[in-house]
Amino acid sequence: MDHPTTVVAGLGLEVGVAVARRFFDSGHNVVVGDGDERRIRSAREDLPEKIEVLNEPIAQFTGMHNCFARAENKFGRLDHLVLIPQILAKDSLDELDLDQFARDVSTNLRSLVMAIRGFAQRVANLEEDVEARAEQRHQRGSVTVILSLAARMSQPGQYTATILQGAAETIVRASALELASSNVRVNAIAALRPRAEKREGSVLGLRTPMKRTASADEIAAATLFLAEDKAAIITGETLVMDGGRGLLSGLMKS
Questions:
Q1: Structural domain of residue 211, as residue ranges?
Q2: CA–CA separation, 111 vs 224, rounded Å?
Q3: What is the SS3 assignment for 121?
Q4: Cα separation, 146 vs 219, whole angstroms
Q5: Which of 109, 165, 183, 252 is the Cys-Cys partner for 150 at CB 3.0 to 4.6 Å?
Q6: Domain for residue 253, yes or no?
Q7: Secondary structure E strands in the chain
Q8: Exposure string (b/e) for 212-235, b if CB count within 10 Å is 16 or more?
Q9: Model confidence over 78-111: pLDDT tens digits?
Q10: Phi and psi dihedrals of 67, rounded to 5?
């Protein structure tokens, strides 16, 4: 029986590499795409040689097309897509450049919709053999979008990033309904990701009951679960990995 094939579009700071490695270790063929040359070099050093790592601008049609085509041409199938949208630099409403804001919104949201639609169309067109249908009888494919916690809660100075992350979660829900009849599932993960809050002296422990961020490996494990057939009834959902932050009113005692 052929191994499932997963495309990871976007590397992020740590999460993309962890996701690619987790899927590969679980028996998936994996293709990784990112347009940042520095991240590509690092991924090629860190990941097994059998993982395809492509320097492709995934926010553009040609970049995503090339990632999908490599998966199909080399492995003969396409089963799962993991999308890790770029988190934009900090900005504020008062200092917002409206022209740049319009470009950021158009580019990022358009690329997300393009990737989900392109994946669904390709999966539908791929010929399914008997064994593949038996293995994945409840789903034809799955998409998981890995977001930051800004999809659910905001902070001052993250104006555009918060809007884009929230809009991405809405795209997940709308896409899940559109694609449910095709047995293509679309879900999201909103995680308190391992970024600046890991620094010594941050207020992470005061704002988060579990006093830490989600690790890249934990996010990768959750992403794999959402792709598996055992989760085939789950679509349009956001798995929040915030260490209890969303439950807390105020601050924890130091």
A1: 5-247
A2: 23
A3: helix
A4: 8
A5: 165
A6: no
A7: 5-9, 29-34, 52-55, 80-83, 141-148, 184-191, 238-241
A8: ebbbbebbbebbbebbeeebeeeb
A9: 999 999 998 888 889 999 999 999 999 999 999 9
A10: -65, -45
H or E stretch at 171: helix 159-179
Separation between Cα atoms, residue 27 and residue 11, nearest integer Å = 20
For residue 241, is pLDDT > 60? yes
Q: Is 252 among the domain residues?
A: no
Q: State how many domains the chain has.
A: 1
Query: How many angstroms separate the Cα of 101 from the Cα of each of 78, 86, 104, 108, 153?
Result: 34, 14, 5, 11, 20
189-234 pLDDT, tens digit each: 999 876 645 544 467 778 888 888 899 999 999 999 999 999 999 9
Contact 188, 116 (CB under 8 A): no
| Among candidate residues 219, 158, 155, the one with its CA nearest the CA of residue 192 | 219
Q: Would you say residue 116 lies in a domain? A: yes
In the block, tokens 């094939």 appear at 5
Which CATH number characterizes residue 154's domain? 3.40.50.720
Length in residues, the chain = 254
